[in-house]
Design a protein that fits this description.
The complex is a heterotrimer of chains A (276), B (142) and C (587). Chain A is built from 10 helices and no strands. By secondary structure, chain A is mainly alpha-helical. With 142 residues, chain B is mostly helical. The longest helix of chain B is centred in the middle third of the chain and has 25 residues. By secondary structure, chain C is mainly α. In chain C, 61% of the residues lie in helices and 0% in strands. In chain C, helix 4 packs parallel to helix 7, helix 8 packs antiparallel against helix 10 and helix 10 runs parallel beside helix 12. Chain C is globular and about 70 Å long. Classes of the chains: A mainly alpha (276), B mainly alpha (142), C mainly alpha (587). At the A-B interface, helix 2, helix 3, helix 7 and helix 10 of A face helix 1, helix 2, helix 3, helix 4 and helix 6 of B. The structure holds protoporphyrin IX containing FE and copper (II) ion (CU).
């Protein structure tokens, strides 16, 4: 409400029920809604995952636990720096508060950078949510069989291929050419095929049981969490130019509460997505 | 927004905090806990073949970490009684929501599997797992 | 009629126009809760007429299947010779329900009345976060835009029902409306969710922190209690709908598979998440109405509200139970039977607090000196129609009974008794009651009564009949069920319902004329034309920016009508106990 109006009307007195700033109360209420939002998402993940017929292991989907742990560490550090920024603001040392907030911003950006790298790795291996670009299948199907045939044909057509590989590929291709061939049985054989280096591609990136649901949940959870991180960074950028003295401690506290919440969400996502 | 932060008497209540030393201690604790849950993926973890226990352990660690952040970084340890009203209902609702999804979504394949041909089932699982002998209960092997 | 409140001589009188701001700042991008409330009111009123028109088209098709629609038929379906196509019919049903629920009842109760009344009734100058409040209105517009646009995209607007069940809503070729129309529908729902959530956080903060001195929680008018609990429901339930809608969007646009069993997902997941929001949402649509009706009944019966504390407890109980009953919409979905029984028990339990409320309203009326104003008549209609709707709800809550009547017109009858007979009559009552405060003029009582009487008669003609054909098995969401031999006998009843519905639709034009006419020609109202107790009646009509020209203080609850302690038959909340004449209400 703008000040001219308040100046004209009288200043009303109120009877607040809780001894905190309105902004802080509102932020805690907002966090309640966020809890419900992530409860729906994480709850969905848990039931879909543990009810699934199959679920990929971290190696299947190129998930790196150390990187996940590193990101956890980064977020914890950023939680410390933002709480230190708040303390500095309360002590009215705006410069220090600003420095801490800036470090928090950098840490948050690092988190997002690492996240982006992880996504890159997944995309590289064909782990897309996108129907058109996805190259994983929940189980070997006809499409898989034809993909395998094409791969085998390129080996048999290769004049430089060594004799052992050629023989093995020809034998497998013979089976694959049988219209009654069971794609799943083919997949089993292809998995054991080690004569040519590319054979690894015939196995993993193509058949990942439960891979579709894994990409769905992984990208949904990490993606929406990353959006929350990005929103936090945006707020930091808006707050940084301000003078962060005691007058702004309340603002900094609100921002901090939000950031800690984002940290807590990750604290749960890390074991659920990487370690389970 | 005149009413927002200047509403007189309730602006004064700045929560007491534990000081920098306290934060560092919490930070060290959080790092240790993260290390502990990370350790479950290593070879030294004695309960590798008990995923149920390992997962419960990891969730307990995660809850402990969340509690540390809530109590010290978000200062709930020093807040008055309102903290319960503003935090517990959401947590209870969240648990109710997740739990109520279990029978219909979590067990969605259970009744279908009971009815399905058992032979059919086994064939599928062997192939799905490829040459890895891991069942979907086994912890990831790295 | 006494002038209840006059400003004390010392206080500066604030004039609505005293601060000179541009038209845009004052009426469009205003941060004043009253302007925002009226923005909500008029926006939803427009949608009310759009939704009503869709409903009449539905009724036309049901009564005279495939016959050419008069006037509009040629314009809309020139290709089909002026008749509705089956696909278009499903779209009509979907969009009628979507608009009425998301764009009319929820925003008019929480957005319009909530915004307008909360600060005034608790004695605050505005909401806690006026700018945020403005955003919560403007976030409605992307939603409006999405829903409007969806009518014009290829395939037309969404046609998977307002419940948007997968796989119909997820697979693009499932129905014509499952194309871009469905995507826009989901986006609209997400936007409206953000708007409601911002609003509800604001209401909660305002009610918790900005009550006038003396206005304890147990002195709040029931309207505020209704809105307060509604805001809590929204804060907890809406995020779940948002999350569910985001997942449906990614299923549609990106190819995730949360709701598709072929991808390892589960269609029932959507139903659970959707009803986790949408059952509380039906209380979002009724609790503010219950609150407003409580205030109105007490005021026009000139009696204290019977059992204030039980009323508050009942609202809280309804809201609490309301969170664990959503499965009663899924009895026939293949849900786990053990869960079905739990949901049945919890649902039937809700009848208890609901009955407490009904009996307390009756107790309030008992022996009162009832003034049959338009507002009171509509409030009485609310009570009686809610009884019917609540009772039919209990039938359906029994799983075994629901097996027979699920997805029949019985359900449609039930929901219209609670949503039209309940919420919409309360909106009418609230409009007649608070119009003087909103605009400083009174609505025309004669036309108000005519409108009430016709609406009430036509309403029952239309919707009571639905129970009958529903018991006969007549299915909902089917374009021409009378084509089946066993339903052919319902044809005359269908025609009867449609005639009543047309009558009801046109009766609403009286309401519109009365509303807009009274804006210009209405009798001027003083501060307290109804001799009511609550704080908003001590502010000028219409209240200026900042609302109060004195410091409001509450000395008692809001329902001290015909109190033996004072000579006047009302005892305003802010009248000090020793100041005898009620004319000196303001302090
Ligand atoms: C005494 C309280 C109530 C009970 C026991 C109750 C029970 C039920 C049940 C069991 C159903 C599902 C029927 C079926 O689909 O087979 C239902 C549907 C419905 N109820 Fe209620 N109800 C109550 C009050 C309300 C109120 C207050 C509202 C709204 C203001 C409401 C709005 C609806 C709507 C909109 C539907 C239909 C949803 C759809 O499209 O399928 N109900 N009710
Ligand atoms: Cu319901």
């Amino acid at each position: 409400m703008d000040s001219t109006a308040s100046a004209e009307s009288i200043q009303l007195r109120y009877q607040p029920a809780v001894p905190i700033r309105n902004g802080k109360l509102m932020l805690w209420l907002f966090l309640s809604t966020e809890v419900m939002f992530f409860a729906a998402l994480i709850g969905t993940y848990i039931v879909l995952r543990f009810g699934a017929a199959a679920w990929p292991t971290p190696t299947d989907v190129h998930l790196s636990e150390p990187i996940g742990a590193l990101n956890t560490f980064i977020l914890i550090c950023s939680s410390v720096t933002i709480v230190l920024a708040l303390e500095s603001a309360r002590a009215d040392s705006g410069g220090r508060a600003k420095a801490y907030l800036f470090v928090t911003l950098l840490l948050g950006a690092a988190f997002l950078g690492i996240k982006a790298y992880e996504y890159q790795v997944k995309f590289h291996h064909g782990l897309h949510v996108d129907r058109a670009r996805r190259t994983i299948y929940d189980q070997a199907d006809l499409e898989y069989a034809s993909g395998l045939r094409a791969a085998l044909r390129s080996v048999t057509a290769d004049t430089n291929a060594d004799a052992a590989a050629l023989a093995a590929a020809t034998a497998l291709l013979e089976q694959a050419n049988n219209p009654d061939a069971d794609p799943s049985a083919l997949a089993l054989q292809a998995a054991e095929f080690s004569e040519v280096p590319e054979a690894a591609d015939w196995r993993l990136p193509i058949v990942i049981p439960g891979g579709h649901m894994w990409t769905s949940t992984y990208f949904l959870l990490t993606g929406l969490h990353a959006l929350h991180v990005a929103a936090g960074l945006l707020v930091f950028v808006c707050v940084l130019p301000l003078r962060l003295g005691t007058a702004r401690a309340g603002l900094l506290e609100n921002v901090g509460l939000y950031w800690h919440f984002v940290d807590i969400v990750w604290i749960f996502l890390f074991p659920l997505l990487y370690l389970f | 927004m005149a009413t927002e932060d200047s509403s007189g008497d309730n602006a004064q209540h700045v929560t007491a905090t534990g000081g920098v030393g306290n934060y560092i201690a919490v930070f060290v604790g959080l790092c240790l806990l993260t290390g502990m849950s990370f350790l479950t993926t290593s070879e030294w973890w004695p309960w590798r073949d008990q995923p149920g226990f390992t997962r419960t352990f990891m969730m307990a660690v995660a809850c402990a970490k969340a509690l540390l952040v809530l109590l010290f970084f978000m200062h709930l340890k020093h807040e008055a009684g309102w903290k319960y009203i503003l935090t517990l209902p959401a947590c209870v609702m969240a648990i109710i929501l997740a739990a109520s999804l279990v029978p219909d979504v979590g067990f969605r394949l259970r009744s279908a599997a009971d009815r399905a041909e058992p032979a059919n089932n086994t064939r599928e699982t062997t192939i799905e797992r490829g040459q890895e002998n891991a069942s979907d209960q086994a912890p990831s092997d790295n | 009629m006494t002038v209840a409140a006059s400003p004390s001589p010392g206080a500066p009188l604030v004039d609505a126009n005293s601060h000179h701001r541009g038209f845009l700042r004052r009426y469009i991008f205003s941060t004043d809760h009253k302007v925002i409330g009226l923005q909500f009111y008029f926006s939803t009123l427009i949608w009310f007429f759009v939704g009503g028109a869709l409903a009449l088209a539905v009724r036309w098709q049901l009564a005279w299947p495939w016959s050419e629609m008069p006037i509009v038929g040629r314009m809309l379906f020139a290709a089909e010779g002026g008749q509705i196509s089956p696909e278009f019919y499903t779209m009509l049903v979907t969009m009628h329900a979507t608009i009425m629920i998301f764009f009319v009842i929820i925003p008019i109760l929480a957005g319009a009345f909530g915004n307008f009344l909360i600060p005034l009734m608790i004695g605050a100058e505005d909401m806690a976060f006026p700018t945020l409040n403005m955003f919560s209105y403007w976030f409605m517009w992307p939603a409006f835009a999405c829903m409007t646009a969806s009518f014009f995209v290829a395939g037309g607007a969404a046609s998977a029902g307002w419940t948007s069940y997968p796989p119909l809503s997820v697979l693009h070729d499932a129905a014509p409306g499952s194309g871009p129309g469905q995507t826009l529908w989901l986006l609209g729902v997400v936007f409206i969710g953000i708007a409601s959530m911002l609003g509800s956080l604001n209401y909660l903060t305002t009610i918790i922190q900005m009550r006038a001195p003396g206005m304890t929680m147990l002195r709040l008018p029931m309207t505020i209690w209704g809105l307060f609990i509604t805001a809590i429901l929204q804060a907890f339930a809406l995020p779940v709908l948002t999350a569910a809608s985001v997942m449906q969007l990614t299923d549609r646009l990106l190819g995730t598979g949360f709701y598709l069993s072929e991808a390892g997902g589960q269609p029932l997941l959507w139903q659970h998440l959707f009803w986790f929001y949408s059952h509380p949402a039906v209380y979002i649509m009724i609790l503010p109405a219950m609150g407003m009706v409580s205030d109105i009944i007490s005021c026009y019966a000139r009696k204290p509200l019977f059992g204030y504390r039980p009323m508050v407890a009942a609202i809280i109980a309804i809201a609490g139970l309301g969170f664990i009953v959503w499965g009663h919409h899924m009895f026939m979905s293949g849900m786990n039977p053990a869960m079905g029984t739990t949901f049945m028990a919890a649902t039937i339990l809700i009848a208890l607090p609901s009955a407490v409320k009904v009996f307390n309203w009756l107790g309030t009326l008992w022996g009162g000196r009832i003034e049959f104003t338009s507002a009171m008549l509509n409030a009485l209609a609310f009570v009686s129609m809610f009884i019917i709707g609540g009772l039919s709800g209990i039938f359906m809550a029994a799983t075994t009974v629901d097996i027979v009547i699920h997805d029949t017109y019985f359900i449609v009858g039930h929901l219209h008794y609670v949503l039209f007979g309940g919420s919409t009559f309360a909106v009418f009552a609230g409009t007649y009651h608070w119009f003087p405060k909103m605009f400083g003029r009174q609505m025309n009582e004669f036309w108000g009564k005519v409108h009430f009487l016709l609406t009430f008669l036509f309403f029952n003609g239309t919707f009571f009949t639905m129970h009958i054909i529903g018991m006969g098995g007549y299915p909902r969401r089917v374009a021409a069920a009378t084509a089946y031999a066993e339903f052919a006998r319902f044809e005359p009843l269908n025609v009867f319902m449609t005639i009543c519905a047309l009558g009801m639709g046109f009766t609403q034009l009286i309401f519109a004329a009365n509303l807009f006419g009274s804006l210009i020609w209405g009798r001027r109202a003083d501060r307290n034309p109804w001799r009511a107790n609550t704080l908003e009646w001590t502010a000028p009509s219409p209240p200026p920016h900042g609302n109060f020209d004195f410091q409001p203080v509450a000395y008692r609850g809001p329902y001290e009508y015909s109190s033996p302690e004072v000579t006047a038959d009302f005892y305003p909340q802010n009248q000090p106990p020793d100041a005898e004449p009620a004319t000196a209400a303001a302090h």
